[in-house]
Every structure is written in C-alpha cells, then in structure tokens.
Amino acid sequence: MTRTPVNVTVTGAAGQIGYALLFRIASGHLLGADVPVKLRLLEIPQGLKAAEGTAMELDDCAFPLLKGIDIFDDPNQAFEGANVALLVGARPRTKGMERGDLLSANGGIFKPQGKAINDHAADDIKVLVVGNPANTNALIAQAAAPDVPAERFTAMTRLDHNRAISQLAKKTGADVTDIKRLTIWGNHSATQYPDVFHAEIAGKNAAEVIGDQAWLADEFIPTVAKRGAAIIEARGASSAASAANAAIDHVHTWVNGTAEGDWTSMGIPSDGSYGVPAGLISSFPVTCKDGKYEIVQGLDVNEFSRARIDASVAELIEERDAVRELGLI
Ligand code: NAD
Ligand code: LMR
Q1: How many Cα neighbours within 13 Å face the side chain of 275?
Q2: Which of 188, 210, 293, 321 is deepest in the core (most CB within 10 A)?
Q3: What is the ipTM of this complex?
C-alpha cells in the first residue's frame, strides 16, 4: 500500500541544526523506516540560497522516503498542511550571552509562526520547539494558535535527557541502554533538574547504585545543566548534531511510543501536576502511546528534588511574565 507522505516543516533549515537534521528526517529516522515524507523548509530571505544548496544535497542522496522538498520565506506557506513542525530557526546563544537576553530577540519569530500554524497546518499538527529559549518560545507559539490543541506544542529537553543518561553510564560503567526512567524537570536552561531518584540502572535504583549524593549535587547536575554552555565554549557554536539527534528522538518517541517500563522527558504544557502551574511549558516525565503523551503520575518528590524543580519552574514563571510584558502572549 502506498502511504500518503507526512508533511514536515523545518524552520531555520539552513542553520547548523537544520543541516544535521534534514538528512535524518529524509532517511526515515524521524517517523519510521516506512513513512514517506515531504519537507517544507522555512528560512529568512538571507538563508534561502543555503537552504537551496541543502535541498540539492538531499536530492543527491536519492532517499527512497523523500517525496518532495519545498523552500519558503513565508511562514504561511511553509506551514500549509504541516503534520509535524520543527521550530529550529532562532538566534543561537553566543559566548557570554545569557539566555534571558534571547527572549525579546526570538519572541518576534515565534508569534507569527504560531499564527501561521494556527491558520494553515493540518489538524493533526505536532510541534516541537528547539530554538531557544525553547520552553518560552513554545509558549509564545502556542498562545498565537488558539485553534490548535495546546498540548500539541512541545519544547525540547530530550538533549538534556540524553546527556544525563550518557553521564550516568560513564559514572557507573553501565550501558546507556540499561538506564531507564530518568527525568528532566523544568526549563531547558542551566536551572533544569535531571532527576535520578526514580531512574533505574540495569533494574536497580540509580540513586542507590551511585550512592553518592555529593556527586549528584556537585558533579552530575551541573555537568548536565551546563553542558550546552560547555559545548558553546568548546566549539564556539551551540550544539548541533546532538541537538538534531534529540529532535529526532523527541518526535520519534511522541509518534511511535515509549518502551514498556520506560519514560522520556518532554517540555509540555503543565496540567498542574507536581505543583507546576498549569499552562507553563515545563519538562516532565512522560510516556507516549498512539501519538499522545501522558505525564507519569504518582512519583514521590523528595526535598532535594522539590527545591530544584521549584527553582527551575520559578525561572519559567519569570520568562512567561517577561514575554507577557512584551505582549508576546
Ligand atoms: P544557526 O544560527 O546555525 O541557524 C539558525 C537558522 O535559523 C539560520 O539559518 C537563520 O537564518 C534561521 N532563522 C532565523 N530566523 C528565522 C525565522 N524567523 N524563520 C526561519 N528561519 C530563521 O543556529 P542553530 O545552531 O541551528 O540553532 C538553532 C536554535 O536551536 C538556537 O536557538 C539554539 O540555541 C537552539 N538549540 C536548542 C537546543 C535544545 O536542546 N533545545 C540545543 C541546541 C541548540
Ligand atoms: C544546548 O543545550 O546545547 C543549547 O540549548 C545551548 C544554547 O544555548 O544554544
């Protein structure tokens, strides 16, 4: 049976992440090895030529699943019929720049894109915001799309999730595939909280396997939370291939489900669970099934975790209030 291609819109297609992302979407990693895709690339006018070059390279791969590439500088056209939207295009943080500074620089991008999604995307649209500050940019886009169910707007904390798994594997000598049920809470920023208290390493409680709360507090959490800044320091540019990989993981898991007994981390609109004010786009532990996600309920939040979740949520509240002041939501 021939399947109808899924329309995937990618913004910032000519950027670093775009370059690492598009080839993996086209080769079936985003949605599945049997799902044909059409790419709809959005760039600003200065980025169009480079996007055309990338499209030429995509053509040259002769990917069996790639059924078309269109390039636009108008969001209304780029989101026409979109089933999946990856909002990557934004101004990356550069050395010495605080994420808070990005709010006004990027806010203007996400409001018109949210409106274009509202007016033109397919009914089953799923949105992942990668461009920073991702959680708050997702909030801006969502607010501009009142006709789209709010839960379709998500922000990427999967890179943080993957980073945390990798750090735990290094510390304990476990294989990354042995690590389950890790959670990133809060904002995709240095205040995020990678939580191992419910995680398992080869079936055993991760906090017990590590047995060293000082390592958690002084090494693990800061390493994961500040990894983005460390990559910028080392590369002179923000993470790109690992960010693209995490975007692929996020959407693949959302569409195809989490494994039995495991969960993942996604920035999603809060329903008030775990004391996170309803409506904030915050990272939670979630399971996915049949293209929908659900927050994992009933986890015990100890004092150590509570203080850290609250600190990250407080930052999200500040960001929300700042964009409200700017009239962006
Ligand atoms: P980049 O500068 O290489 O590329 C950004 C691209 O977006 C550019 O080609 C630019 O022309 C384009 N662009 C800018 N405004 C646009 C608009 N209004 N519409 C369409 N395209 C537009 O940056 P990058 O390295 O690809 O990073 C992109 C974003 O992803 C940054 O905000 C970065 O901070 C963020 N990021 C997020 C995570 C995460 O885990 N959530 C990880 C890494 C990077
Ligand atoms: C990352 O986590 O690598 C990025 O979000 C860092 C950044 O600020 O671009």
Answers
A1: 14
A2: 188
A3: 0.99
